[in-house]
Design goal:
The complex is a heterodimer of chains A (189) and B (865). With 189 residues, chain A is an alpha+beta fold. Helix content of chain A is 33%, strand content 24%. Chain A has three domains: 3-34, no CATH class; 39-96, N-terminal domain of TfIIb; 106-188, no CATH class. Chain A has helices at 3-8, 11-17, 31-34, 39-42, 87-90, 92-96, 120-138, 165-178, and strands spanning 45-50, 59-65, 68-74, 106-108, 116-117, 139-142, 148-158, 180-184. Chain B is of the alpha+beta class. Among the domains of chain B are: 6-241, 3-Layer(aba) Sandwich (Dimethylsulfoxide Reductase, domain 2); 673-860, Barwin-like endoglucanases. In chain B, a hairpin with a 3-residue loop joins strand 7 and strand 8. In chain B, helix 3 crosses helix 8, helix 7 packs across helix 8 and helix 14 packs across helix 16 (360-367). Chain B is globular and about 75 Å long. Chain B starts with 5 loop residues before the first helix and ends with a helix. Classes of the chains: A alpha+beta (189), B alpha+beta (865). Chains A and B meet through strand 1, strand 2, strand 3, helix 5 and helix 6 of A and helix 1, helix 11, helix 14, strand 9 and strand 10 of B. Chain A: Its main location: other.
Chain lengths: 189, 865
């Protein structure tokens, strides 16, 4: 190593002689930090998304590396948010990658004291059985004057404001065809 | 707004930087207050008194934007002489029926109208939250009206309004709200000065306004001010609702709500909508003016979207398959029915009522009395674990070995693990691309409901029961893809948009819909989102490359229109009110409306157009009537029908209040929705005895770092770390009075529950002088519960259940309580404490009729009487 390159390897020299007098940019870089790249640069793909918290609708860019979400950033193109995210939106990656997320079906039998495991298909079929049974037991064809009711008041559902329009559409369509009226979501409260 | 919608608040700061003056009204000083030009501390639950004061200030000083008001509102319209005001009736309007505490709205009608066109009585409207249908259009009213454009007729709306609000003086505002007169006048002056051809003002609210037993009337008062000042349909104007979930607007437009169908069509009612014709006529009101006259088209397209080929003209498009309402089937009625054992199964889809709904104990006891419960969520939330971790375990009210509810927890896909659209708070649909596959068993709701429907239809395939035809004939063949057999969200969006049956061509606008079954459309107000076969909600042209309106980012309903009623941004002749406020205008050379936004008007209808007498539908709307979804084309300062608690807002005290209503003999909203159930106990309010048992006012709201019931924030480590504990903000004065120490513990008690919290002694909450006495208010966040990384008692446990009569929203922004130092008791001691408070306060349950404070001698109402 020559004297000159030794000098130039010294941050304070670069700070005094270069274009970074405050030493907060290029002058402060080491070989290690120079080699660092942003996760957003090395991502395999990026999805254009929207923040899942409040209804402002801030744009998000979801970066993916090796099939995993590697970073979520505000979308600077969004005329709503101009790249900004609040503390919740900025924590979206922690939300979707949280170790507390449940990723398997859990089942608690009547009078049970513990959770049990259950296969997803089994759970889906058990729920279908229960929906049909509840519907049969509580079905109302007509009112006291013989006017049609076509319904069950034995089934309720709550939730939808965190879901997609397409999902709410199918939920309402299926429940309506089933005769289930008691469908509500956060918009009521 | 800076706390709960911080990124939206950047635009308030932009406006402030350009000279806008920002006022913040809140019971508690927040980050918004810190950045506002002026902050007004208000007693929770008194905003109508404050806003009514502004209405009076405008009218008394004739500061309204007169050209706008005369041309575009119903100020000049004359009301029948049968109408009697709260001024004449001590806080009631004419038509009040003591038997069921509802109004007969007949006497509120416009002069010359034989009757209001509402087909359902007021009680049915309340039970079915019929007011929600008006989210896309006004209540039905005839278009031919008698008007006095000099505004001098004693029964014109302008004069009625003036008289109704006459007692909302600055002195009364101070007396009711605790806002000093000079602070009130500063607000009123700034608001009114910012009005006219060159200037507009904007009003922003959130659930601090809606979650009241008079919530709809809060918004009405704000809308009256904005109409009087010419701030509707113009850039920089409006009444802006800041909604709190990513697609809560979407879940209202495409409603998972009991009383609505997509596009604000009403769910059929057994008595009022026996046939397709009766149903659509009740919406369209034959002869009615405005766009809603096409209701049959919207209804038939929905039925075709639901039942496809099976829906034909011969069978009334399967209208007979529709379930029918008989009354209130809302979420709070459901919870009481669960407690009473009437409901078997319950789905929870990304909602956590054990923490997020009023009266948490009722919610949990209801869930503990089901046959089965399906919880679909990202995390193990309180509503999934009530049977093992609820506070009622400690009190012995729930025991796992005695709790019969079978619980299925199914993990849900997150927002990055599925594709689809959210509708944000300005009606803007934004498509999200899918980034990754969901982990393990996690699936989208689209997957769950598609496959649940598929399995149910397979089980019933051989059924011959008539009740199963609606399921078997359902159009349910969506394309699927991928290893999880995920249905195509884009195919569903295309069905929502609508298409031509014969050619499959997506519709470009709801005006292309036909009522003969040749088109299909699942939600008429969303038609156009898939115009030209292109997913318009996925458009992402950078904001920096577009005009301020940014029409090529996402897609807004209706018709990609960003400001509703924007015809009002031009004067009656079609010219911009001013260069500064130019937005949409009439281009006389081309004979069409043009501008920066999609005009909210028939494109070629000139400003000079006048309808033939008795013209109906769209043809009945004149060229200078901007409010095209109102039967009379006017913005309503006065609602001749459709608002169940009165044609104009009136200040009533919250259902639980430490003070008597200083304005009228009526204490609380006389038409509020009440549930008489043993679990729904009530704190007394004056003049009832024992109101001093609960002397303090409490209110709740959000923290920046948490979201609603905490399911998406107390489970996320950076957010949990930022706000790790349940706390209560109290003023130094109250802390001294009640012996509370900063960072120590306190507990709050109501007739429902006692919850504990760490004490934050702060000037952010301040005692208010109200009607000659000091009222202490405390504030709590409502995010906490017993699951997640950080836990704490739930503030919503403190509330009872009382609802607004128009939309059945609960009063959960204000209540009364006692505040005590130290932690709350545990186990049976906790039950005993609450029972003792109930005993001392008279063991009240909610009841009709409303409390009438006839013994009050000092109200202005009585002085006149």
């Amino acid at each position: 190593m020559g004297v000159r390159s030794w000098f130039e390897g010294w941050p304070v020299y670069r700070q005094l002689t270069g274009t970074d007098p405050l030493g907060r940019g290029a002058a402060a870089k080491s070989d290690g930090s120079r080699a660092l790249t942003a996760r957003t640069d090395t991502a395999d793909s990026m999805a254009r998304s929207v923040c899942p918290y409040c209804a402002v609708g801030c744009g998000q860019r979801v970066f993916v590396k090796d099939g995993q979400v590697s970073q979520i950033e505000g979308d600077p193109d969004s005329p709503i948010s101009r790249g900004r995210l609040c503390p919740k939106g900025a924590a979206s990656k922690s939300l979707v990658t949280s170790p507390l997320r449940q990723t398997t079906v859990r089942y608690r039998r009547p009078y049970g004291t513990e959770w049990e495991d259950l296969d997803l298909d089994t759970a889906l079929n058990m729920i279908a059985d229960r929906v049909l049974a509840a519907r049969d037991e509580t079905w109302e064809d007509v009112d006291a004057e013989g006017r049609p009711l076509n319904r069950t008041l034995g089934i309720s559902s709550l939730g939808g404001a965190t879901l997609d329009n397409e999902e709410n559409y199918l939920i309402k369509k299926l429940f309506t065809a089933m005769g289930a009226l008691q469908i509500e979501n956060q918009a009521r409260i | 707004m800076a706390e709960a919608h911080p990124v939206g608040f950047q635009w308030v700061m932009e406006a402030k930087r350009r000279g806008a003056k920002v006022f913040h009204v809140d019971p508690r000083f927040t980050r918004t207050s810190a950045l506002a030009d002026s902050y007004l501390a208000i007693r929770a639950g008194t905003d109508i008194a404050l806003l009514g004061g502004v209405v009076r200030y405008i009218l008394d000083n004739e500061l309204d934007f007169r050209e706008y008001v005369v041309a575009y509102t119903n100020a000049a319209t004359i009301v029948t002489e049968e109408y009697a005001d709260t001024e004449d009736m001590h806080g009631l309007f004419s038509g009040f029926n003591d038997d069921n505490a509802t109004y007969d709205q007949a006497s509120w009608r416009y002069e010359g109208h034989s009757q209001n066109q509402t087909t359902r009585d007021s009680e049915t409207q309340r039970e079915t939250a019929a007011g929600l249908e008006n989210e896309s259009h006004g209540a039905p009213v005839g278009g031919e009206t008698e008007r006095d454009e000099t505004l001098q007729h004693p029964r014109c709306v302008y004069q009625i309004l003036k008289r109704h609000f006459a007692r909302y003086t600055p002195e009364m505002v101070e007396r009711v709200c605790g806002i000093p007169q000079e602070k009130f006048l500063e607000l009123a002056q700034a608001w009114t000065e910012n009005s006219g051809r060159d200037r507009t003002g904007m009003l922003v609210y959130s659930v601090g306004w809606t979650q009241h037993s008079v919530g709809v009337q809060y918004i009405r008062t704000g809308a009256i001010i904005q109409l009087l000042l010419g701030n509707v349909g113009r850039p920089g104007g409006g009444v802006m609702a800041l909604r709190g979930h990513a697609s809560i607007q979407g879940s209202t437009d495409i409603p998972t709500l009991f009383n609505l169908l997509p596009g604000y069509l009403p769910m059929p009612h057994h008595a009022n909508h026996p046939t397709l014709d009766a149903w659509v006529d009740s919406i369209a009101h034959p002869g009615q003016k405005g766009f809603w006259g096409n209701a049959r088209t919207y209804g038939v397209n929905l039925l075709k979207a639901y039942w496809g080929d099976a829906a034909t003209a011969d069978n009334d498009y399967c209208y007979g398959y529709m379930p029918r309402m008989t009354g209130d089937h809302g979420t709070y009625q459901q919870v009481l029915d669960m407690i009473d054992g009437k409901i078997k199964g319950y789905f929870l889809l990304g909602q956590n009522p054990a923490v997020g709904s009023a009266h948490g104990r009722a919610q949990r006891l209801g869930m503990a009395n089901l046959d089965w419960l399906v919880v679909r969520d990202l995390f193990m939330i309180e509503s999934a674990t009530f049977w093992q971790n609820a506070p009622e375990i400690e009190t012995g009210e729930i025991a796992p070995e005695r709790c019969r509810t079978e619980v299925f927890f199914l993990p849900a896909a997150s927002h990055v693990e599925k594709e689809g659209t959210f509708t944000q708070t300005q009606r803007l649909l934004q498509w999200r691309e899918k980034a990754v596959e969901p982990p393990g068993d996690a699936r989208s709701e689209l997957w769950f409901f598609y496959h649940l429907g598929r399995i149910i239809r397979e089980r019933l395939a051989a059924s011959t029961k008539p009740r199963d035809r609606a399921l078997l004939d359902l159009a349910w063949d969506y394309p699927t893809h991928g290893p999880n057999v995920e249905p195509s969200a884009e195919a569903v969006l295309r069905e929502i948009n609508g298409y031509d049956v014969a050619t499959g061509r997506p519709l470009a606008s709801f005006t292309e819909m036909k009522d003969d079954g040749s088109t299909v459309g699942g939600c008429w107000i969303y038609t156009g989102v898939y115009a030209d076969g292109v997913n318009q909600a996925a458009r992402r042209k950078p904001g920096s490359e577009q005009s301020l309106v940014a029409p090529e980012w996402g897609w807004a309903w209706p018709a990609n229109r960003r400001i509703l009623y924007n015809r009002a941004s031009a004067d009656p002749d079609g010219n911009p009110w001013s260069e500064r406020k130019r937005y949409v205008w009439w281009d006389a050379d081309k004979s069409e409306w043009t501008g920066y936004d999609v005009p909210d008007f028939e494109k070629t209808k000139p400003p000079s157009y006048r309808p033939e007498r008795d013209a109906s539908g769209v043809a009945g709307i004149a060229g200078d009537d901007p409010f095209i979804l109102q039967g009379d084309g006017k913005g309503w300062l006065y609602a001749p029908t459709g608002v169940l608690d009165g044609p104009m807002p009136t200040h009533y005290e919250p259902v639980e209040s430490p003070v008597r209503n200083p304005l009228y003999r009526q204490q609380a909203n006389p038409t509020r929705k009440v549930y008489t159930h043993p679990i729904n106990t009530l704190n007394p309010s004056p003049p009832q005895e024992h109101s001093q048992v609960f002397p303090y006012v409490f209110t709740v709201s959000r923290l920046t770092e948490h979201h609603t019931a905490g399911g998406m924030s107390r489970t996320v480590s950076p957010l949990a770390e930022l706000q790790p504990e349940m706390f209560v903000e109290v003023s130094p004065e109250l802390a001294a009075l009640r012996g509370l120490s900063h960072l120590g513990w306190a507990h709050l008690v109501t007739s429902r529950a006692a919850v504990e919290a760490k004490v934050l002694v702060t000037d952010r909450v301040t005692p208010l002088r109200v009607d000659g006495r000091i009222i202490h208010q405390v504030w709590l966040p409502y995010h906490f519960g017993y699951e997640g990384l950080v836990t704490g008692d739930s503030a919503n446990d403190l509330f009872g259940i009382t609802l607004d009569p128009n939309v059945l929203i609960q009063e959960s922004k204000v209540g009364t309580c006692d505040v005590r130092p130290g932690r709350r008791p545990r186990g049976q001691d906790l039950v005993d404490l609450v029972v003792d408070y109930r005993r001392r306060s008279g063991n009240l349950v909610h009841r009709y009729p409303p409390m009438v404070t006839t013994d009050v001698a000092d109200t202005s109402s009585d002085q006149e009487a």
